[in-house]
């Protein structure tokens, strides 16, 4: 099969982890006789430096003409003084919006080889396998009006949702749940926010279309606690944009490192794939970055944009296998464990390639 | 000294835990020759049932005429179908607003006797002592416009802050930090939200008044993770309203149970004291509720409304001592630990009283 993949490596560790991910995709293509074409383009801080804006038109054109967009990371401290609409992150928000994907899938899985890396007790995390479905195009991220009035010393952002925006992401969550443990936990703050009341009513309505799936509602504050106390009790977790941002990062501690977490954004014109971690400028270029988040993101490309489920599963198995041998990048290394050996970004990529 | 205390026990387990807290306050008064006068009043679901609204005028009058308001909990599932402005929780939000306290202090402390109760590893939590300073009168909770339009199938809430609202709560956070480990971690989402940019700029400005205090900024998503990975690295955590709601509940896992957590809201006309836990209607009246959150809240009354620091510290020491003897309410009991004995709400209250 043929797949056009736009590669937006971005800032900080973005390029180095993306390189390992595309290497794995090339290996899969070669092995399976597929034709994967990779087209690089600028986004984020490197785009601001190179073209003056965080999402150049050329990048947008390449992305929209592709079958899948693989993104590294955006963000660079040198732009901290700019307003949100001019920063590297604006490029990320703009491309999310342009591609139209509204359902951001973020798996949070406990790998037994990494059980010692989580601040949570191994008996709490063992077997945990949560899939966050985060609405990605609504809420405070995109709602208008939004401003910071420096004369009036006041600022506002708007949390806005329409029923349709909730319906479409809820359907994806329920669909995915039918293929998993058949449970959806919907997160809101319905005891305070009108938006959450619409959210809860709508999700409840959609649940009726999926009688085989159990729906539970949780308030976002309690959920932040339950996720740590009983991570195993969750299957699919459905959230609005900001709640999903917070809770999926929090759940990174179930896996043990943000560097391990992939994501896929589906439902729009072109699917967008990005590891959950940021650009980590402090370790960029040092070989310390963990490429497994990006490599697992590549697996999601195969699953959600190429229908190559077996290949996706093979990458995931290769990652688990490499971890089991004790190979560790700095973020998942633990002092005093003689079975572990510290490897660089590139070495970790190579090990997964070999295991594959 | 004389202290008029309004007692708004509220719903569910509110009355039973509040009873234990007032018993302790009476004991302190008797011992110290103080004159504490307790005036009960209705709030929440019981007020709706009794008077038609969640915050009757009579309650407001009593509260505003008092030196301190002690609240139990509000919330009752039977009102779930009502809109946010008619629910028991509306009574809570209204009284918060009426009393004017804008700085909600929520300590999150790791008790060594409860180390086994946290899903976090004991070596991660040992010694953790975080004080959340949550802004309580701004942001999405109170911002207008806010509506759910059922015809248009759309809803909005508004996150709004003025600089003054941030200045006053920031000063309290820095003041408190000078008496602790001299570190403030300010939480925002400044890479996306204009409100957070105002927040960050304002907190940075106020920090200059406190050169002995170190300020760090954290994005709310990363913070949700860092709190679990390195709880010991935080001292005072300063947040806007909703972020503080989520993060302080999450940090309940550091202590091991929400039932242990007190809070005080200061800065307004009358200080408001409430345990962090909710009304827990499922266990109301069963004797399973943990009164220690309410009792530790009583200690905060003595500290922040009566200047009785030594008595506050004595209550806190008594709680730690009782926990060390192995007494446990259901929420903090662990099967298989022979040193523990299960006690009821009332027995736990009595044990603290004796230890005092
Ligand atoms: C970089 C930032 C804009 C982004 C977000 O908040 O969505 C990131 O935190 C994420 O979760 O992908
Ligand atoms: C009951 C609810 C309105 C309240 C809040 O969100 O402030 C509660 O969760 C709390 O944290 O005190």
Automatic annotation (TrEMBL), chains A, B:
EC number: 1.1.1.85
Pathway named in the protein's UniProt entry: Amino-acid biosynthesis; L-leucine biosynthesis; L-leucine from 3-methyl-2-oxobutanoate: step 3/4
Protein location: Cytoplasm
UniProt entry keywords in alphabetical sequence: Amino-acid biosynthesis, Branched-chain amino acid biosynthesis, Cytoplasm, Leucine biosynthesis, Magnesium, Manganese, Metal-binding, NAD, Oxidoreductase
GO biological process, one term: L-leucine biosynthetic process
GO molecular function terms noted in the UniProt entry: 3-isopropylmalate dehydrogenase activity; magnesium ion binding; NAD binding
UniProt site positions, description: Important for catalysis: 141, 189
Cofactor note: Binds 1 Mg(2+) or Mn(2+) ion per subunit.
Domain Isopropylmalate dehydrogenase-like, residue spans: 4-352
Task of the protein: Catalyzes the oxidation of 3-carboxy-2-hydroxy-4-methylpentanoate (3-isopropylmalate) to 3-carboxy-4-methyl-2-oxopentanoate. The product decarboxylates to 4-methyl-2 oxopentanoate.
Subunit structure comment from the entry: Homodimer.
Name this polypeptide is given: 3-isopropylmalate dehydrogenase
Organism expressing this protein natively: Granulicella sibirica
The gene coding this protein: leuB
């Amino acid at each position: 099969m043929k797949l056009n993949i736009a590669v937006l490596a971005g800032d900080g560790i973005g390029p180095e982890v993306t390189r390992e991910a595309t290497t794995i995709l090339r290996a899969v293509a070669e092995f399976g006789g597929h034709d994967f074409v990779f087209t690089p383009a600028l986004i984020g801080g490197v785009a601001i430096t190179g073209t003056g804006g965080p999402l150049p038109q050329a990048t947008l054109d390449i992305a929209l003409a592709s079958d899948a967009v693989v993104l590294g990371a955006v963000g660079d401290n040198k732009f901290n003084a700019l307003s949100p609409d001019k920063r590297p992150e604006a490029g990320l928000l703009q491309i999310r919006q342009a591609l139209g994907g509204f359902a951001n899938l973020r798996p949070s899985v406990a790998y037994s080889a990494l059980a010692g890396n989580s601040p949570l007790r191994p008996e709490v995390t063992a077997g945990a396998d949560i899939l966050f479905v985060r609405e990605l195009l609504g809420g405070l991220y995109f709602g208008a009006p939004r401003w910071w009035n420096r004369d009036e010393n006041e600022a506002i952002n708007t949390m806005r949702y329409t029923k349709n925006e909730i319906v479409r992401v809820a359907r994806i969550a329920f669909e995915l749940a039918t293929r998993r443990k058949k449970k959806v936990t919907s997160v809101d703050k319905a005891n305070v926010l009108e938006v959450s009341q619409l959210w809860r009513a709508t999700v409840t309505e959609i649940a009726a279309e999926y009688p085989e799936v159990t729906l539970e509602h949780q308030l976002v504050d309690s959920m932040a606690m339950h996720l740590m106390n009983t991570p195993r009790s969750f299957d699919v977790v459905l959230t609005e944009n900001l709640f999903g941002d917070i809770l999926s990062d929090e759940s990174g501690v179930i896996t043990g490192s943000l560097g391990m977490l992939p994501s896929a954004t589906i439902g729009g014109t072109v699917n967008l794939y990005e590891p959950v971690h940021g650009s980590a400028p402090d370790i960029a270029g040092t070989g310390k970055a963990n490429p497994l988040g990006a490599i697992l993101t590549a697996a999601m490309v195969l699953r959600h944009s190429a229908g190559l489920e077996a290949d996706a599963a093979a990458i995931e198995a290769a990652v688990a296998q490499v971890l089991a041998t004790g190979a560790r990048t700095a973020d998942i290394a633990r002092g005093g464990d003689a079975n572990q050996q510290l490897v660089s970004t590139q070495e970790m990529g190579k090990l997964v390639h070999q295991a594959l």
